Fold:
Amino acid sequence: MSYFVVSVEPRTEARFMTMAAKLLPADLARFHWPRRRLTVRRRGKSEESLAPVFPGYLFLETGVVTEEIFRTVKRLPGFYRFLESNDRIRELSGDDLQLVAHFVRFGDVIGKSLVTFDEHSRIEVAEGPLAGLEGRIVKVDRRKQRAKVRLDLYQETFLVDFGFEVLVPSSSPAPEN
Structure:
């Protein structure tokens, strides 16, 4: 299967996917909308929230965009265009494909990564969605437990915050037998 990018009106992604699922058989085409879980503090209270990784973009997984798929998707409210353009629909490849596949692998909702910090206060990812993206991290906010990551897709750069939890090494030595 290949991935294609569909640009839609921001904040209408969920509705768009629901309508598309009704019109397109799941074995023919499936949309992915990676979202990330963040902890947000409002008025002194922490709340969990979901935010899209790529606002306004959905990823269509299908073998090929047939005329039937194109017409069905194009008629849905909120549709802007396929990328590269409606006349030249291009499947993801290279770094773009690796990036999207990385996030799709974690499912619809991307959780928090488990990290540690070395003696120079550099972040080290133990596991989670930040694994493999360490070189793209541009800023770390330890208090908010967020890492700002630079993501490039179709020559466009996105700065995206991902949540993390800090693994605290145990201070007591392991018992000897």
User: Anything to note?
Assistant: The helical segments are 13-23, 67-74, 94-104. The mean pLDDT is 90. The domain at 1-111 is CATH 3.30.70.940 (Alpha-Beta Plaits). The radius of gyration is 19 Å.
